[in-house]
Write a structure and sequence with these properties.
The complex is a heterotrimer of chains A (457), B (482) and C (128). With 457 residues, chain A is of the alpha/beta class. Chain A is built from 14 helices and 17 strands. In chain A, strand 3, helix 8 and strand 4 form a beta-alpha-beta unit. Chain C is built from four helices and nine strands; from the N terminus they run E-E-E-H-E-E-E-E-E-H-H-E-H. In chain C, the strands form two sheets. Chain C has a six-stranded antiparallel sheet with strand order 1-2-3-9-8-5. In chain C, strands 4-6-7 form a three-stranded antiparallel sheet. The chains are: A alpha/beta (457), B alpha/beta (482), C alpha+beta (128).
């Protein structure tokens, strides 16, 4: 009896509705005596001879307990105030954003190939395209690719397609992971990648002038840069354009767009970036969402899915995927990219986040970030324990210390802060440098506490 | 449907934030004039209620697996378990900063490591990278590894063989990695033409990218022969895992000679498609290719998890590590199914597809009349004479409350035309499948008796048939106030 | 529906038509090609002044769901491009053999013309 019960239990799975009896009935309808007949095309010699060595199924309750336990082996991050950013920024996420991305009509849908029953996804793509054109000032936006690093790499490929040149200048203050990703993606193009040196937190424009020539395809600059610094993009663009190079602006802390001058006005031809700041959790580094924006005339060189407005047969507004002929399912090896899946679900997060904050909210939040970060930096300098280059920045900055950075980080951690990044992790020459990020998640009291800890060293 | 911009009322806000207590600081003193925008960016101004209603309305005009049957061939639209969403959103995971000290994210690394062990066993591969964000991203990793392997051997190779039945991503990925794409034909049975393959495979060819079961839902019966031909010339075999669902617990790609595999965790492993993503396109390799994997990969040593940078790595393909929350969901699904459950998923998905095929083949003559694996290919070619395109059949299905199957794919000469590719997956009940079959049969009758009904379909959807030509001829890609 | 094939023109197996006027070849796509592509939405135009070799890709035509390369039927120099079809690609659908011409090539080698199909030959080829 007990044995029998166990067998029934084994054969029923909560995600598979058809009972054994139904399966048998269906096999009969198909006209085969057993399931094995349907596998006739699989040579017996290559079939598995034994069961997979993976555990037996567990109940939902056991599953929850098991994975919850694993999650608790992480630091209880939520209790720590973050002083670290470096491409991944903790901002407060309004509950509405979480509600919206949990609507299962959104998260259980596929790519919107059938517009008649996918208007929710398509309209969100279109709305995010609009938000990002307004934030960047660019003409067109492809709203979703895996992340900022892959968006950067794809936009370099885009530039190479546009002008067919062979040299790429990367800001040395481009996020190191982004630099590496660009190198991986462009490997088969046999191009020369040169890093533009920085000085005191900004690109050295005099050095740029020496490095650039008529064979330069593009100049890739992150703004705010990896050290949080705000570059003079207009100056860099002018030099690039004089040499016929395309200016690719990389924005990783995308909240800065609410405050900074239109990318197009500063001379950017392409903007690629990361939108994690606009409604996405840190999530151990992903999934985030990358985007590519450009001037109108490059539109057919943009990879990835774009939504467009049209009408249905009755003249009602309708959204569809536009400019499809750029894509791999139509062009195969001649496509602009192999991109197929994107990170559409994150567009719902961005859309909800930007809609909630809106014109005023996003601006005020960017202002609060700026002020908080500047407050902390000036207070830290006042302690006399830190000094640093005086470059303009948004919500991240680098400071040097004469004290032991390890000790500083430990003390901050003990006081409930996620310590700032050791710059030497990525720039070995820059010992004793810490990269601080300050978002609205740190209150004035928190910042004062940081200062007190440093002062008491 | 109104855009959020059209609901905007000046002065509204849907957000509250801590008070700005830095009165002494002026932004103009922080950010230089050349960088500061003179005006605020023109974003919508709406209240929290407006936002919630906006998205609730949008959700009502979107169709997902939770809405109903979604038999998109090649996409494996199976049920996405709710508990997996909750687990992926545990705060211990979602608040983890990727550049924190490694001792602080041991839990995340443990989950990645444990998932990798399961995937290795399921596929018969030796090591995985969990970095790729999508299947195509995984393909790029795979072909870059192939390129690097030959480069490292001192004899770089320049060509890649891709079947004419392959997904478009295969040739596109190969081209991105610098390979010249060579197409191998399908034979009259819909699988790789062995003689043609023999004539193409040479010592300048890196290998072949193969989907198995292939995109017409057929198992590549000659796989051992294919392996022999490709390995015989020193080439590598790449397994596109789009269709792995059919083989779970039955065949492991690693045992049939594949050197590299990518898996779509958002297909076989139940993680949701999210309206296009995020998914995860993890890549597994055999021992001889581990040193080329993208960096970093997860290692376990004395119960401590760390990140390793393979010696001859192709490099990074993204920032940070992986689409972590997607991995949690896939891990949870495998544990929930267990070893018997995985096999059962394959079994039921195959039965369901063959059931659809057997019931519908009198009405939608298949390109190949033989048993299929987890998806079947029908065609709408018999209705052409009534002026009906396969597209019309697909559109009409929406009136019956179903998401249409994949149509016009695969599309290769001279066999596959007007294709309708149905993949029911294991998570659909016989009752649902029967309803779908009945709708398809009704439509086949309507096609003959009342073709106009199909040509003007769909009739009951949130919008009617949309003008895609206009959208591309005169692209409107953002909202502009009139 | 039978596709229109115009007597007196020359054809390629990749569905271009050629009208030879002295040393100039006027090139377009056939009725069959435009029908197969469907509504044409974009034309990536040939570059005036470019030297092309027979079978080089010269232009690209895109419809909503397909893209097709237009190859040079003969070698020579692109001397003129039809700007009006670039502006309004639907012309190629509506009038492929006349107003829908794509570009003109100044022919390098008149021998190459002999390789092209005549109307009858093209009709046979398409029937197969």
């Amino acid at each position: 009896m007990q044995r029998g019960m166990k067998n029934t239990e084994k054969s029923s799975l909560r995600y598979i509705p058809n009972t054994k009896e139904q399966q048998e009935e269906m096999l009969k309808e198909i006209g085969v005596p057993s399931f094995g007949h349907l596998l006739n095309s699989i040579p017996v010699g290559i079939r598995l001879k034994s069961d997979l060595k993976i555990p037996d199924k567990i109940s939902e309750q056991e599953l929850f307990e098991k994975i919850h336990k694993i999650s608790q082996k992480n630091l209880n991050f939520i209790d720590f105030k973050p002083l670290i950013g470096a491409g991944s920024y903790r901002h407060y996420i309004p509950e509405v954003v979480r509600t919206v991305v949990s609507y299962s009509e959104f998260y259980t849908a596929y790519t919107p190939y059938q517009p008649e029953i996918s208007q929710g996804t398509l309209q969100t793509m279109f709305e995010v395209q609009t938000h990002l054109t307004r934030l960047t000032g660019m003409d067109v936006v492809m709203p979703s690719i895996y992340d900022g690093a892959s968006a950067t790499a794809e936009s370099v490929l885009m530039a190479l397609r546009i002008n067919n040149k062979k040299k790429v200048l990367l800001s040395s203050l481009l996020h190191p992971h982004y630099k590496e990703t660009v190198k991986t993606y462009t490997k088969s193009h046999w191009i020369e990648i040169i890093e533009m040196p920085q000085k005191e937190g900004s690109i050295e424009t005099e050095e740029l002038k020496k490095l650039i020539d008529s064979d330069t395809a593009c100049v890739v600059v992150q703004n705010p840069n990896f050290f949080g610094g705000i570059e003079n993009i207009e100056l860099i663009s002018n030099i690039a354009h004089e040499n016929g190079a395309i200016v690719i602006l990389i924005v990783i802390e995308s909240l800065s767009l609410a405050l900074l001058k239109s990318c197009k006005k500063t001379g950017a031809d392409i903007v690629a970036g990361e939108t994690q700041s606009l409604g996405m959790d840190l999530n151990f580094g992903g999934p985030y969402n990358g985007f590519i924006a450009s001037k109108e005339n490059y539109i057919r060189q943009i990879p990835g899915r774009i939504a467009g407005e049209t009408t249905d047969v009755e003249g009602n507004r309708a959204f569809v995927m536009a400019l499809r002929a750029r894509e791999q399912d139509i062009r195969r090896e001649k496509a602009t990219s192999n991109l197929c899946s994107n990170h559409a679900l994150n567009l719902f997060a961005i859309n909800a986040y930007i809609s909630l904050l809106g014109k005023e909210g996003l601006y005020r939040l960017a202002v609060l970030n700026t002020k908080s970060a500047h407050y902390l930096r000036s207070k830290l300098i006042e302690t006399g324990k830190f000094y640093g280059d005086d470059y303009p920045f948004f919500n991240e900055f680098v400071l040097r210390t004469k004290d032991d950075p390890k000790l500083i980080r430990e003390k901050l951690f003990k006081a409930g802060f996620l310590p700032p990044l050791k710059v030497s992790d990525f720039f070995p020459a820059l010992e004793n440098n810490l990269l601080f990020a300050v978002t609205e998640t740190l209150s004035k009291e928190d910042l004062d506490k940081v200062v007190d800890i440093i002062r008491s060293l | 449907m109104k855009l959020i911009y059209e609901k905007s009322i000046k002065g509204r806000i849907g957000f509250s934030m801590p008070e700005d207590r830095f009165e002494d600081i002026n932004v103009k003193d922080c950010i230089p004039e050349y960088a500061l925008s003179k005006e605020k960016k023109e974003l919508p101004e709406v209240s929290e209620v407006d936002v919630v209603r906006h998205f609730t309305t949008l959700s009502k005009i979107n169709y997902g697996v939770d809405t109903g049957f979604y038999p998109l061939g090649s996409c494996t639209m199976k049920y996405n378990p709710k508990i997996n969403e909750k687990l992926a959103n545990l705060e211990g995971f979602t608040f983890a900063h990727p550049l924190a000290d490694i001792k602080h994210f041991q839990g995340s690394l443990e989950l990645m490591y444990e998932l990798e062990q399961l995937l290795k066993e399921i596929t018969g591969m030796d090591r995985f990278t969990l970095a790729p964000g999508a299947g195509a991203h995984g393909e790029l990793v795979g072909v870059l590894i192939m390129g690097k392997y030959f480069e490292d051997s001192g004899k770089p190779r320049h060509k890649m063989i891709v079947p004419d039945s392959a997904h478009g991503t295969n040739p596109a990925s190969s081209a991105m990695a610098g390979f010249k794409v060579v197409e191998v034909k399908s034979n009259e049975r819909g699988t790789v033409d062995i003689e043609h393959l023999k004539s193409l495979m040479d010592e300048d060819t890196a290998g072949i990218m193969l989907t198995n079961p292939n995109t017409v839902g057929l198992f590549e019966t000659d796989i051992t022969e294919i392996t022999k031909i490709v390995h015989g010339k020193g080439g590598l075999l790449y397994y596109d895992g789009a269709n792995l669902n059919a083989l779970l617990g039955i065949v492991r790609p690693g045992d049939t000679g594949f050197d590299i595999v990518h898996l779509n965790l958002h297909k076989t492993f139940s993680t949701p498609h999210g309206g296009g993503g995020p998914g995860a396109g993890v890549v597994g390799v055999k021992n001889h290719l581990i040193e080329f994997l993208p960096s970093p990969i997860v290692c376990k040593c004395d119960d401590f998890y760390s990140l390793e940078y393979p010696k001859k790595s192709i490099g990074r393909i993204r920032a940070f590590f992986c689409n972590f929350s997607v991995l949690v969901k896939a891990y949870a699904w495998i544990l929930s199914m267990g070893k018997d459950g995985l096999k059962e998923a394959a079994r039921v998905s195959i039965i369901n597809a063959n059931y659809v095929l057997s019931k519908l083949k009198p009405y939608y003559r298949p390109a190949y009349d033989r048993f299929c694996m987890h998806e079947c290919i029908l065609t709408g070619r018999d209705y052409k004479e009534y002026g009906i395109k396969t597209l019309d059949i697909a559109k009409r299905l929406m009136d019956y409350g179903f998401h249409p199957p994949t149509i016009y794919f695969p599309h290769f000469e001279p066999y596959a035309h007007e294709t309708i590719m149905v993949e029911p997956t294991e998570s659909e009940s016989k009752e649902t499948i029967d309803e779908f079959i009945n709708a398809m049969i009704k439509i086949s009758k309507e096609a003959i008796e009342n073709p106009e009904l199909l040509k003007s379909a769909p009739h009951s959807t949130p919008i009617r048939r949309a003008d895609e030509t206009k959208a591309t001829r005169e692209p409107i890609l953002k909202f502009e106030e009139k | 529906m039978a596709h229109k094939i115009v007597e007196g023109l020359l054809y390629t197996e990749s569905d271009e038509w050629v009208r030879v006027e002295g040393e100039i070849a006027i090139v377009g796509i056939t009725d069959y090609a435009q029908d197969k592509l469907g509504d044409i939405v974009y034309i990536e135009e040939a570059v005036q002044g470019n030297k092309v070799v027979k079978e080089d890709k010269v232009a690209t035509i895109e419809s909503v769901k397909a893209a097709s390369d237009i190859n040079a039927p003969v070698s020579g120099e692109i001397v003129e491009v039809n700007k009006s079809v670039v502006k309004d690609p639907a012309i190629v659908n509506n009038d492929p053999y006349s107003k829908g011409w794509l570009f003109k090539i100044k022919i390098d080698n008149t021998e190459e013309i002999k390789d092209l199909l005549n109307a009858k030959g093209y009709e046979e080829y398409r029937k197969e």
